[in-house]
Design brief:
Elements lengths: L1 E2 L9 E5 L5 E11 L4 E8 L6 E7 L9 E8 L4 E8 L11 E8 L9 E10 L28 H5 L14 H21 L11 H25 L2 E2 L5 E2 L3 E2 L17 E2 H19 L2 H15 L5 H8 L4 H11 L8 H28 L14 H4 L1 H10 L1 H6 L3 H11 L17 H4 L2 H11 L5 H21 L17 E2 L2 E2 L5 H15 L8 H17 L20 H4 L1 H6 L22 H10 L5 H8 L12 H16 L10 E5 L4 E6 L2 E6 L25 E5 L23 E3 L3 H4 L35 E11 L19 E13 L2 E12 L6 E9 L6 E4 L2 E4 L4 E5 L3 E4 L5 E4 L5 E11 L6 E14 L5 E8 L4 H11 L6 E6 L3 E8 L5 E8 L11 E4 L3 E8 L5 E7 L19 H6 L5 E18 L2 E2 L5 H4 E4 L10 E9 L5 E7 L7
Parallel strand pairs: 12-13
Antiparallel strand pairs: 1-2, 2-9, 3-8, 4-7, 4-9, 5-6, 5-8, 10-11, 14-15, 16-17, 17-18, 18-19, 20-24, 21-22, 22-23, 23-32, 24-31, 25-26, 25-28, 27-30, 28-29, 29-32, 30-31, 33-34, 34-35, 35-37, 36-39, 37-38, 38-43, 39-40, 39-42, 39-43, 41-42
Length: 1131
């Protein structure tokens, strides 16, 4: 029979009242086939019982003894709603053709007090995925997930029992100090939410603006959303409201979606529960009550002004206003301080009662210990931020009402706290998702756990020690794909480099944990501190000021995202030392000796006149995944800024240098305020990420994308939201597909077979009087791609189409990029495309948007306004200046195409039509080119005269650079320095080993690699060589096509295997110095990295020409400073 008492959808459910052993059979009109077919349903219980409901999925046409396809138990030991998501593949054994058409519920045989349950949303599902096992349905026939499914480990970790503690022995002096440290950490966290020493009435400037944003976008909106939930309690204490569901459920909508009454629990948690808790938290502060009484008592006692005063106090909420007015009417006028305070106290009690009712409603909906609500996939991200932070702020109230233990169990279950109790961690490092979520929630659990008895105190100490051990392990670097921190400072998410999302939040929360624990007996290890700190500095290097390269955006393309603004707290936290913190966590004076480098970086970013910075400082941003825009966090920023300015510390100047991240196929070249990045992908580094509505045109994102960021403002020229041609990403070699053919919904994270993708750096060996002779790189991408109609995608480019003309497109090329101070030389060769007609193959130099009426480019010295249409093909040598002042030299015969026009496109979601005016320059390789090639050079941050001077020099007898080789075997470029300290620098990309060269210091190498060499041209006495084998050479036998091909080894354990490379020189040399990634190595370790083999083993003193670079791992650049034995002119 149906019942309106409980429901999970609509307003009714099916009530089943049984006798022991009864069966409830339900038939489906047709068979559901396949191992992924299954069942989904919800059950409500008013009373828990230690018994199981047996559930069988049956193929009715088979013999009774063989017709049960899968049988599982559904525990009845719960109250409220619980979900079942079960697939046939979870059975111990399956028939060749698994299918079912009937479900049978069998009641317990034993007598139990309550023999009633309510069933709703029973779905005969064709495809069940993401299901999670819990205490209601434990693993049916063993775990269906291995440890690579990081979202599905909740039940497994809940089975871990923490070590026992001594609950009788008195605490030692050391333990007492550690306990005091825990209380200090708790005070710091409380002050992170809001400085306890500052009253709301004292909020000023940006803090006041953020508070006002919190009131409007937090408190007031939460009250409106609360009404939409329609939570009611019947006379017999039955609680009902809008049904709640987790992320992976097909049911449930956001508050802004009017499709139905069902809601997503994540939205309720963060947009209702947490804001209401914050409002209550601020309302009950004694300073708030005292200030309210002092400010409003006279108005309350005025019949004219009372109503306006009440609205101010309740922040315009009509229900709260009516409640407070009714409380005030209970006292005769004029009201005293006591009367007014009593009324405010009752109002706050009403707020608390509302929150407690909301918590009971959430619990009743299934969010409680032991419950998976069907699927916990992404539940940690979507629900826990609002819930966990609310529980911490309500810890005292929960304790007083006797509910603390209940909610602590819920918190431990969903944060799988059992993971911290490992004696030996099953892998090193952790995901960005954990570092931006549960690293904080686990700390909150420990801090709010009771500590009144010796036993409880020792449990607190045990858990805190285990937590710190887990943190230090989670913050380790590891070369395998899962760990966020990589040895080259890259940050991974989804098994690949990710810049502008996930990792910035993870670094910010990890920095906050470092700040909270610093200076206590539970401080993070030095290694953890260094790992966080170095990545913060690395992010600062690759951004012109705030925006990270678009090529590492994952599935969120945007050149002008300014993510470092949101990371300001991270830089602030690392600018503070323990000695600068008072006991409650307030800042004392900041001295220049306290990590001055990080303080100066913080000052460079904390630009209060910048509109984007101001917006972030003034907004109380509510994001389900994490909460970092607290009032207290902003107070820390402002107090730090005030104190470092008082200490007369100056903002940092941007670094100059070159950095290679071969785990990301990313290189960064920086000179003061401009930065250039280049990005590729390989057999271990995937290309791009997309979803059905995000970055659907992103397939060329890692195709050698070369991004010039002259300044933060200059990035507005690259506007992917308006008119962007997705086939003409600057620096890339691509096929000019249509938007329809380019679209790749849910087709992403592919690898390609190439090994040689990455870069090398060469540290300068000259006096500091020559600062421009800095770091260099060669970058190479090789592609062998297959575009197929049936989507049997193997490599980089993938086409979704319905035309047989695209049945088999082959596309490959080689690409090198050489950096030399502000000069960049770009080479391409072996560009081959077949079966691509009618689409042309191209290499894009730049694509700049028309932003103002005076936006211009220059072509051979002639100005062209972007407001006017223009097109031209240049066959002679050309000198072009883009809208940001970067010059492009194109040698004769390269068919440089120039177009200024209005471009029509679509936004990254693949749906929204867009258009805008752009100036675009590209090299046209034609339809189905065979062994096509190109050459062009870029002079960054120059002017018309500068790029014309480069063109003139390149056509003279004394060029700035010379291309010595450009074929399938090698790309080699020579740069000549004509300053007072002349030198020649050679960049080599060896696509093949044992290629014989006749010019330059290197004759050949034994393994494919990237090399840079520099000779002292004054007396030819020194040769400096740096070599990298950018292929990470992992110890895996798998040929990876898609990120889904990765297994346990690739996720957690694989490492880079060492490679030995011999470089054969034109003269015998002696080893003087060794550097690894630009850092000097102790002399005693030289032999570990480099050996000089003598030409004559019988006369080793004569030295030799073969330099062996030994044990190259992790794509490192290993550099040898060599002294030539005899004078010898190098050509």
């Amino acid at each position: 029979m149906t019942s309106a008492k409980h429901y999970k959808d609509g307003f009714h459910s099916m009530m089943w009242q049984w006798e022991p052993g009864d069966k409830l059979k339900l038939n489906w009109r047709q068979h559901l086939d396949g191992s992924h077919a299954g069942i989904k349903f919800w059950i409500y219980r008013n009373e828990s019982s230690a018994a199981n409901l047996s559930v069988s999925l049956i193929e009715s046409k088979l013999h009774r003894r063989k017709n049960v396809v899968i049988q599982f138990n559904f525990s009845l030991n719960f109250t409220g709603w619980r979900a079942a998501w079960v697939a046939l593949r979870e059975a111990k054994s399956l028939p060749k053709r698994p299918r079912y058409d009937q479900i049978v519920f069998t009641a317990p045989d034993q007598e139990i007090p309550s023999r009633v349950l309510f069933i709703d949303l029973l779905c005969f599902a064709h495809h069940v995925i993401y299901q999670s096992r819990d205490e209601i349905i434990p693993p049916i026939s063993g775990d269906i997930y291995d440890i690579t499914f990081t979202w599905q480990q909740t039940h497994r970790w809940s089975l871990i029992n923490p070590p026992e503690v001594n609950g009788t022995k008195p605490l030692s002096e050391k333990e007492m100090q550690q306990l005091n440290d825990i209380y200090l950490i708790e005070k710091r966290l409380v002050n992170w939410f809001a400085n306890e020493g500052v009253r709301i009435a004292e909020f000023r400037g940006n803090v006041l603006k953020r508070w006002e944003s919190l009131v409007i976008h937090g408190f007031q909106r939460a009250r409106r959303y609360l009404k939409e939930l329609n939570i009611t309690v019947s006379q017999d204490d039955v609680i009902t409201g809008s049904p709640l569901f987790l992320k992976r459920s097909q049911f449930g909508h956001g508050f802004k979606n009017a499709k139905g009454e069902n809601k997503k629990l994540g939205d309720v948690s963060f947009q209702v529960l947490f804001p209401l808790t914050l409002e209550y938290y601020f309302s009950i502060k004694e300073s708030t009550i005292r200030d309210t009484v002092w400010r409003e008592l006279a108005n309350i006692n005025s019949l004219v002004r009372r109503e306006f005063a009440v609205k101010r106090i309740t922040k315009q909420d009509s229900e709260y206003s009516e409640f407070l007015l009714s409380e005030l009417r209970k006292f005769k006028s004029p009201l005293t301080h006591f009367h007014f305070r009593r009324s405010l106290h009752n109002l706050n009690q009403g707020k608390l009662a509302t929150i407690m009712l909301l918590l009971e409603y959430i619990t009743d909906q299934g969010w409680t210990q032991g419950s998976a609500m069907g699927s916990l996939d992404h539940g940690m991200n979507k629900v826990e931020s609002g819930f966990m932070n609310s529980m911490f702020l309500l810890r005292e109230q929960l304790s007083k009402t006797g509910k603390l233990g209940k909610f602590l169990k819920t918190m431990k279950w969903y944060s799988f706290l059992g993971e911290i109790y490992q004696n030996n961690f099953e892998y090193s490092g952790t995901t960005a998702d954990k570092l931006r979520t549960i690293i904080l929630y686990r700390l909150e659990i420990i801090l709010m756990s009771p500590g009144s008895t010796v036993y409880e105190q020792r449990v607190k100490l045990r858990d805190m020690a285990a937590y710190v051990r887990w943190c230090n392990n989670a913050l380790l670097t590891h070369p395998a794909f899962l760990a966020m921190f990589k040895p080259d400072l890259s940050c991974f998410h989804h098994l690949g480099v990710y810049g502008s999302s996930y990792n910035p939040e993870a670094l910010t929360i990890s920095s906050m944990i470092w700040y909270l624990l610093e200076g206590t007996s539970f401080a993070l290890s030095t290694n953890s501190k260094v790992n966080i700190r170095e990545r913060l500095l690395s992010y600062g290097r690759m951004a012109p000021q705030y925006s990270l390269p678009n090529s590492i955006c994952g599935r969120f393309p945007n050149y002008f995202k300014a993510i470092l603004i949101k990371m300001l707290p991270a830089y602030a936290f690392f600018s503070v030392r323990a000695q600068n913190l008072t006991e409650p966590g307030e800042l004392q004076e900041v001295l220049p000796g306290n990590d001055t480098e990080m303080i100066r970086v913080f000052l460079r970013l904390y630009e209060q006149t910048n509109t984007k910075v101001l917006f972030h400082l003034q907004q109380a941003l509510f994001k389900k995944d994490n909460y970092i825009s607290s009032i207290g966090s902003l107070q820390i920023l402002q107090e730090l800024y005030r104190k470092v300015k008082k200490a007369e510390i100056q903002p940092a100047e941007p670094q100059t240098g070159h950095w290679v991240h071969n785990f990301a196929a990313l290189s960064i070249h920086r000179r003061k305020h401009w930065v250039v990045t280049v990005k590729g992908f390989s057999r271990y580094i995937w290309d791009f990420e997309s979803s059905s509505h995000e970055n659907v045109y992103g397939i060329y994102q890692s195709h050698g994308a070369l991004q010039i960021s002259n300044s933060e403002e200059s990035l507005k020229a690259y506007d992917v939201q308006h008119g962007w041609d997705w086939t003409r990403v600057p620096g890339t070699t691509t096929i000019k597909l249509s938007l329809h053919e380019l679209m790749t919904p849910k087709v992403d994270r592919y690898y390609q077979p190439s090994k040689l993708v990455g870069g090398v750096t060469l540290e300068r060996h000259y006096p500091r009087a020559c600062p421009k002779k800095g770091f260099r790189l060669r970058f190479y991408i090789e592609n062998d791609e297959q575009l197929t109609q049936n989507e049997n995608f193997r490599n980089f480019t993938r086409v979704r189409n319905d035309d047989a003309v695209f049945e088999k497109i082959k596309f490959n090329f080689t690409k090198s990029i050489f950096f030399y101070n502000s000069l960049i030389v770009c080479l391409g060769s072996n560009i081959n495309t077949t079966n691509s007609e009618p689409y042309r193959t191209q290499t894009t130099l730049f694509q700049d948007k028309y932003t103002t009426s005076i936006t211009v480019i220059y072509i051979n010295g002639k100005m062209k306004l972007l407001r006017d249409d223009f097109s031209q093909i240049l066959y002679d040598s050309a000198a072009i200046l883009d809208t940001n002042g970067n010059g492009y030299y194109i040698p004769k015969g390269s068919s440089a195409n120039i177009a200024i026009s209005r471009q029509k496109s679509k936004a990254p979601n693949g749906k929204t039509p867009t258009e805008a005016r752009y100036a675009t320059v590209w090299l046209d390789h034609g339809i189905n080119p065979v062994s096509a090639s190109y050459e062009y050079a870029i002079l960054v941050a120059t002017n018309v005269a500068g790029i014309e001077a480069l063109r003139k020099a390149q056509t003279s007898d004394s060029p700035v650079y010379e291309v010595l080789h450009k074929n399938s075997a090698a790309h080699v470029v020579r740069f000549t320095d004509k300053t007072a300290s002349p030198s020649k620098t050679y960049g080599y990309t060896f696509f093949k080993k044992n290629v014989r060269l006749t010019e330059g210091p290197i004759r050949h190498v034994s393994v494919e690699c990237i090399v840079m060499a520099q000779i002292d041209r004054a007396n030819f006495s020194n040769i400096n060589i740096s070599i990298s084998s950018p292929d990470l050479n992992y110890n895996t036998s798998k040929v990876l096509i898609h990120s889904k091909d990765n297994g346990i080894n690739e996720y957690f354990y694989m490492r880079s295997r060492p490679v030995n490379i011999s470089a054969y020189l034109n003269r015998p040399v002696v080893l003087d110095r060794v550097l690894v990634n630009g850092k000097p190595v102790e002399k005693s370790l030289y032999g570990h990295y480099i050996a000089v083999k003598p030409d004559d083993p019988q006369q080793p003193a004569l030295r030799g020409r073969e330099i062996v670079f030994k044990s190259l791992i992790n794509g490192e650049s290993v550099e040898a400073y060599l002294r030539v034995v005899k004078n010898y002119v190098v050509h």
